[in-house]
Amino acid sequence: MQKIKLIATGGTIAMRKDSFGKTVPAVTGHDLLESIPELQESAFWDVEEFSNLASCNFNPERMLQLARRVKEAFADPDCMGIIITHGTDTLEETAYFLELTVKDSRPVILTASQRDASERDSDGPRNLHNSMRIAMDPHAKERGVLIALNEEIHAARDVRKLHTSHVDAFSSGEVGSLGSIDHDEVLWHRKPEPSVKFDLPEKLAKVMICKGYTGMDGRMLECMVDAQVEGIVIEAFGRGNLPPEVVPSIGKITAENIPVVITSRCLFGRTAPVYGYPGGGAELQRRGALFAGDLSTEKVRLLLSIALGQNVSHTRLKEILSRGGVK
Ligand SMILES: NC(=O)C[C@H](N)C(=O)O
């Protein structure tokens, strides 16, 4: 029998309703497996109870611990693949952290559910079962870190949670999913662009996010500098534009060698310094801001946190971001 590692971290997939009808952590990784006899019969499972937390508790340090556990699990040549159960709220962040730091070609699959384990039609068991099918599929290798929910397989770089409660909450937007599950068959549509890879960091840099809004000025950014920030991601408008009042602060901050990276509050499309009016992307670029293509704000923040923690040069960082983190 093939060996699969299951790392349980928590999320709604591991929750039940309490006596007040509120959803709280209650189910272990072992419980999850035991609830689906077909899983136990199909593979040899090595289960690790990493945590039982809602995913709002995940931070980059915890993601790093998880990345270390993944590396250790892959030291076992018999391990076919790793399935990680996780909350959906921040799943795309943990998946992308692993995407940037796991170098093994074997599949790492993150799965979750939108309906807790006390719901009669919870999506958890099906998502876990599908993840096992992916882990056992010989074609799952070399596709980066995968997200499996709602019969779909997504790439860590591209996926976003778009709906707060529906089971089809995740989407890869314009580029689409990597594959799907049809009954017990795994169907692959494409291979993802490979991501830039980093060694497991010893240190993570403090990177903060600021969202652009009408009437904004630079005070929030300057507060971040006072809080010893090492990098800032600004989720700007459209192609990467901001109110002109923000521009002087961007110049001041980049002059202190603190990278400022522009992303977009639009869900799809790339940022680019195409507008030359005050506050336009071209002016932000002249003041030293970098652009990160179509990579989401949260993912740029993680990439920056890892890269700056390893003293990646400004030139290299600019190059990595200009390719949206693609190798
Ligand atoms: N569906 C979920 O898993 C959401 C939950 N609040 C979490 O992220 O932990």
Automatic annotation (TrEMBL):
Keywords: Hydrolase. InterPro entries: AsnASE_II, Asp/glu_Ase-like_sf, Asparaginase/glutaminase-like, Asparaginase/glutaminase_AS1, Asparaginase/glutaminase_AS2, Asparaginase_C, L-asparaginase_C, L-asparaginase_N. Substrate binds at residues 55, 88-89. SUPFAM superfamilies: Glutaminase/Asparaginase. SMART domains: Asparaginase. Its EC number is 3.5.1.1. Residues 3-192 form the L-asparaginase N-terminal domain. One of its GO terms (molecular function) is asparaginase activity. One of its GO terms (biological process) is asparagine metabolic process. It comes from the Bacteria. The keyword Aminoacyl-tRNA synthetase does not apply. Residues 206-320 form the Asparaginase/glutaminase C-terminal domain. It is an enzyme of class 3 (hydrolase). The active site is at 12 (o-isoaspartyl threonine intermediate), 12, 88. It catalyses: L-asparagine + H2O = L-aspartate + NH4(+). It holds the Pfam family Asparaginase_C. PANTHER family: 60 KDA LYSOPHOSPHOLIPASE, L-ASPARAGINASE. Belongs to the asparaginase 1 family. This is asparaginase.
